[in-house]
């Protein structure tokens, strides 16, 4: 491992790196040194930030031609894009994690956490923001619970949108391509009195992957996706020292959950809404506060049409499973081994199951388990969140700055199938960070978060960092941090029960009570799990990082190198479904490696983006490393000509999927602009080529063609 790290990093220490043109809000006043806002909640020059940070600017977003935010995150060292088979949605993993749920990173949009309230995941197709409205994405690559709380476990993705005055006018865009890509956008921004506003509407659609055996453009996998939303933002200055922002959005998405058999379908429809208010108070040049309040609600209707053996819907079998889960499963495997029954009550219930099936004595043989009943099974959930946060920033003198705050959050979830009713959780947070310049060349950052909530233990997450400034644009950093991830409501307090409605016999076509020998009009599957409190421990990570940052304005170059070791303990890595009643928090994982990112602008019309990562993972459960490559490389070259620009990118993942796969693909995006009076027209073509048609993660996640493409056109005025 040590030799691999040296081989990875030593050639880079002699390299150079690119300072892109960025808005004034992200520059130190009077200089060209870029700053970061996310890591400590303080505006800090990159050389003084106590973490590894990747910043994706609007220029890169426009140049890469990506359709979605997860596609942009492929260009972040150490990050891998996966796909949840059970949700038919993208997942983003930093270093290693279970791919079905993105539950170890915090994702924020303009300060609002989009991490779901009840189930630990991020639904990327439920985030109502257009890529055209994003100013920058700041990714803090490392534990950040000291700043953002329990779910900022391994990284934080902070999406910052453009101000309305930066997008004045009207924008139209249409995109179409293979895989049934059909996207559209309309947006309008204007000034009004002392304020400004923007309204954006967008639509996205595609038909997903094609399946394991699809060839030559065929689609054999039913996993279509669709999203549409309307969003708005209004901002104004109430006084010279008081500023207000109001944001709101409505979102609707639909997904077909992949299946080869069109008769056994599964669908998900989601409706969500949020309203957010930010009030900023500039008390003086050295004192600033902010009050943020938001409410969000999501209603997800997920349903599937399934066929099961009728006996599995027997209410007596349900009751038997509640008394003796392991014995019931043993009887399903061997219906005549009654030795697994412990009491006369259990034996009586099993006799009733057999009697209902037409066999009054458990000693008789020949029980027919082939009799099937089909029905629609919903797993609906409504969750909502109210979050109130006060943040206070003070510059005490030339050597000391602090940011501190308090927040309250109420999460609530309603679901009959997942919770048998309602679950709720109240969370209070206290946080703070001190930036202390011990010497002109030595900077100390010390931060911590204390959290108290209803369903988990109290948590304390510290971070301590020293930045040794070799110059204002060059530094070495050493960072120690600890963080937690709190189990969500479904992990900690599940009540799994699945009920099938509109019952139908696949053999006779009869419906309702006549469709099955139990004479049921609706049937509850015998497998269930109800836990008042599983008592799961919080996941914990201890991270040590050594980093180097160098900005070279004369070379228009920027370099960042990270060496790290992460120790993760008390992980909840097992499957979370009604077939897994016993879930534990005793898994562990050790991760060590190196990362590099380089930005270089050799000419005003060209820039290079290069990232490399080496990740060495040891885990007690292989599911944690299914989509984790050992080595990754991304390279992107952009050239801007007269009225046109082109970007060529390459992605390489080695030892992918537990060392089995090599994943390579290239991308080319070309755009042409025309100015006709006050109208700006543009067209673009995007082409992606996958060198080997390996599955992304699950074996069905393949395209039937190595080439994906789309054309797009836009108008701005």
TrEMBL record:
Name the source's superkingdom: Bacteria
InterPro entries reported in the protein's UniProt record? Beta-barrel_TonB (IPR000531), Beta-barrel_TonB_sf (IPR036942), Plug_dom (IPR012910), Plug_dom_sf (IPR037066), TonB-dep_rcpt-like (IPR039426)
Domain TonB-dependent receptor plug, residue spans: 47-155
Query: GO molecular function, one example?
Result: siderophore uptake transmembrane transporter activity
**Which membrane topology describes this protein?**
Multi-pass membrane protein
Gene Ontology biological process terms from the UniProt entry: siderophore transmembrane transport
From the UniProt annotation, give the residues forming the signal peptide. Answer: 1-19
Q: Does the keyword Oxidoreductase apply?
A: no
Task: Enumerate the UniProt keywords alphabetically.
Answer: Cell outer membrane, Membrane, Receptor, Signal, TonB box, Transmembrane, Transmembrane beta strand, Transport
Where the protein is mainly located, per its record?
membrane
Q: Please list the residue ranges annotated as the TonB-dependent receptor-like beta-barrel domain.
A: 380-682
State the GO CC annotations. Answer: cell outer membrane
Q: Does the keyword Transport apply?
A: yes
Q: Where in the cell is it found?
A: Cell outer membrane
Q: Note the PANTHER family from the entry.
A: BLL4766 PROTEIN, TONB-DEPENDENT OUTER MEMBRANE RECEPTOR
UniProt record similarity statement? Belongs to the TonB-dependent receptor family.
What is the protein name given in its UniProt record?
TonB-dependent receptor plug domain-containing protein
């Amino acid at each position: 491992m040590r030799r691999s790290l040296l081989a990875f990093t030593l050639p880079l220490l002699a390299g150079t790196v690119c300072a892109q043109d960025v808005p004034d809000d992200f520059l130190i006043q009077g200089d060209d040194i870029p700053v970061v806002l996310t890591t400590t909640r303080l505006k800090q020059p990159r050389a003084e930030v106590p973490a590894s940070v990747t910043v994706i600017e609007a220029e890169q977003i426009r140049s890469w031609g990506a359709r979605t935010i997860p596609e942009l995150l492929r260009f972040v060292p150490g990050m891998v894009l996966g796909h949840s088979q059970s949700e038919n949605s993208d997942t983003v993993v930093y270093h290693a994690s279970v791919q079905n749920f993105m539950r170890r990173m915090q994702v924020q949009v303009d300060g609002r956490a989009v991490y779901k309230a009840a189930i630990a995941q991020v639904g990327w197709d439920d985030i109502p923001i257009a890529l055209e409205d994003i100013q920058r994405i700041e990714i803090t690559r490392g534990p950040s619970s000291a700043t953002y709380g329990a779910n900022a476990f391994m990284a934080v993705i902070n999406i910052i949108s453009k101000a309305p005055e930066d997008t004045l006018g009207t924008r139209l865009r249409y995109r179409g391509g293979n895989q049934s890509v059909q996207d559209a956008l309309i947006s309008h921004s204007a000034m009004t009195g002392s304020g400004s506003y923007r309204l954006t509407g967008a639509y996205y659609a595609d038909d997903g992957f094609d399946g394991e055996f699809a060839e030559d453009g065929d689609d054999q996998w039913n996993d279509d996706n669709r999203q549409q939303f309307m969003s708005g933002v209004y901002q104004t200055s109430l006084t010279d020292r008081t500023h207000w922002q109001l944001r709101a959005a409505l979102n609707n998405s639909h997904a077909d959950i992949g299946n080869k058999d069109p008769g056994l379908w599964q669908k998900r429809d989601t409706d969500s809404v949020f309203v957010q208010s930010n009030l900023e108070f500039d008390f003086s040049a050295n004192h600033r506060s902010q009050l943020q309040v938001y409410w969000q609600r999501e209603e997800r209707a997920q349903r599937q049409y399934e066929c099961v053996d009728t006996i599995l819907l027997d209410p007596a079998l349900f009751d038997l499973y509640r008394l003796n889960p392991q014995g019931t499963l043993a009887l399903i495997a061997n219906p005549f081994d009654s030795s697994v029954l412990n009491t006369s009550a259990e034996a009586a219930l099993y006799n009733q199951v057999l009697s209902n099936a037409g066999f009054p004595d458990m000693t008789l043989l020949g029980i027919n388990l082939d009799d099937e009943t089909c029905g629609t099974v919903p797993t609906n959930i409504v969750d909502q969140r109210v979050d109130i946060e006060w943040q206070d920033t003070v510059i005490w003198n030339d050597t000391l700055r602090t940011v501190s705050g308090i927040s309250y959050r109420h999460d609530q979830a309603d679901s009959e199938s997942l919770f048998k009713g309602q679950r709720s959780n109240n969370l209070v947070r206290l946080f703070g960070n001190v930036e202390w310049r011990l010497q002109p060349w030595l900077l100390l950052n010390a931060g911590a978060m204390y959290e108290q909530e209803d369903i988990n233990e109290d948590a304390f997450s510290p971070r301590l960092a020293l930045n040794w400034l070799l110059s204002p644009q060059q530094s070495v950093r050493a960072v120690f941090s600890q963080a937690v991830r709190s189990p969500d409501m479904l992990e900690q307090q599940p009540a799994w029960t699945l009920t099938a409605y509109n019952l139908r016999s696949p053999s006779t076509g009869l419906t309702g009570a006549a469709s099955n020998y139990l004479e049921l009009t609706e049937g509850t599957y015998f497998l269930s799990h109800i836990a008042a409190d599983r008592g799961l421990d919080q996941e914990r990570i201890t991270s040590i990082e050594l980093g180097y940052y160098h900005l070279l304005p004369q070379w228009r170059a920027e370099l960042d190198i990270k060496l790290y070791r992460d120790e993760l303990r008390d992980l909840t890595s097992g499957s979370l479904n009604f077939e897994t009643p016993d879930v534990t928090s005793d898994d562990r994982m050790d991760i060590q490696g190196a990362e590099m990112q380089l930005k270089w602008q050799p000419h005003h019309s060209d820039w290079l983006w290069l990232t490399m990562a080496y990740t060495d993972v040891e885990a007690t459960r292989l599911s944690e490393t299914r989509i984790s490559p050992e080595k990754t490389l991304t390279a992107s070259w952009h050239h801007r000509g007269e009225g046109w620009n082109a970007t060529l990118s390459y992605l390489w993942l080695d030892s992918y999927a537990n060392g089995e796969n090599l994943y390579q693909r290239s991308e080319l995006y070309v755009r042409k602009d025309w100015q006709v009076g006050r109208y700006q027209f543009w067209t673009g073509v995007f082409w992606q080529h996958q060198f080997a048609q390996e599955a992304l993660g699950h074996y069905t996640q393949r395209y039937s063609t190595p080439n994906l493409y789309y054309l797009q056109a836009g108008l701005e005025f």
